[in-house]
Amino acid sequence: MKLTILAFGITRDILGASELNLELPESARIEDLKAELARRFPAFANLSALAIAVNSQYAELDLELKELDEVALIPPVSGG
Amino acid sequence: MIDIQILESPLNVQVCIDFVSGAATGGINVFVGSVRNQTRGKRVLYLEFEAYVPMAISEMRKIAETACSRFQIDRISIHHRTGRLEIGEIPVVIAVGAPHRQAAFEACQYAIDTLKQTVPIWKKEHFEDGEVWVAAHP
After folding, report:
1. Which domains are seen in chain A, by residue range?
2. Which of A39, A57, B20, B96 is the least buried, fewest Cβ under 10 Å from its Cβ?
3. How far is residue A32's CA from residue B117's CA, in Å, rounded to a whole number?
């Protein structure tokens, strides 16, 4: 399935873009997405944490992705 | 009553206070963030805030709803600014109105502490010799 991933903060700098188009196997889970990102972008290993949001909610590692999901990379937040 | 806003323009503390003021309000507690001129002794020139707006609003609303149910408060306003902020400007305002002051203090503390942990907003510090996303690296 094709996914469009939104990137914010330092993840946008690492990708060099605010969006990334990614092809993942059907019924891929969040953990598969994180593994694919780590493979393609080794700099992700240097982050103190990386959360993934699906449709504006924090997602657990075992959540199954669907093609129309809005997926976003959430590096450590620092608002306030 | 809940008021959540993410704004690119300067925040207005009075607007937040007015929102949480009512006939049944016995006290209002306000937290106002401020852009500091240094971090760990290093001079900061300015900050940039970026938000994943739909999710940030959703997370801020969760904080406000939890604050209302967990503490005895009935009005809360949370405003966060994005874009470039100069030293001394205000990135965040949280105002809480409650029948009694203790709840207003506790809810306000809960709201700012949780906002800093869960709301997808990111701060980049700009120095004379570079820039860094705060908290990105261990």
Report:
1. 2-74 (3.10.20.30)
2. A39
3. 25
Structural domain of B114: 2-129
Of the candidates B50, B55, B137, which has its C-beta nearest A46's C-beta? B137
Question: pLDDT tens across B86-103, in order?
Answer: 999 999 999 999 999 999
| Nearest Cα residue in chain A from B57 | A56
Stated as kind and residue range, the H or E segment containing B121 is strand B121-127
List, for residues B58-76, the tens digit of each pLDDT value. 999 999 999 999 998 999 9
Cβ-defined contact of B115 to A6 (cutoff 8 Å)? no
State the ipTM, two decimals: 0.95
Over residues A24-68, the pLDDT tens digits come to 999 999 999 999 999 999 999 999 999 999 999 999 999 999 999
Q: Count the domains in chain B.
A: 1
Interaxial angle between packed helices B53-70 and B101-118, expressed in degrees from 0 to 180 and rounded to the nearest 10:
150
Beta bridge partners of B83: B49
Q: What is the Cβ-side half-sphere exposure of residue B37, based on CA atoms within 13 angstroms? A: 2
Q: Which CATH number belongs to the domain containing residue B98 in this structure?
A: 3.90.1170.40
Instruction: Note whether residue B135 is domain-resident.
Output: no
**Angle at Cα B119 formed by Cα B117 and Cα B120, nearest 5°?**
115
Which residues contact residue A72 at a Cβ distance below 8 angstroms, ignoring those fewer than 6 apart?
Answer: A5, A6, A7, A8, A52, A53, A54, A56, B52, B55, B120
Q: Which of B33, B54, B136 has the CB atom closest to A76's CB atom?
A: B136
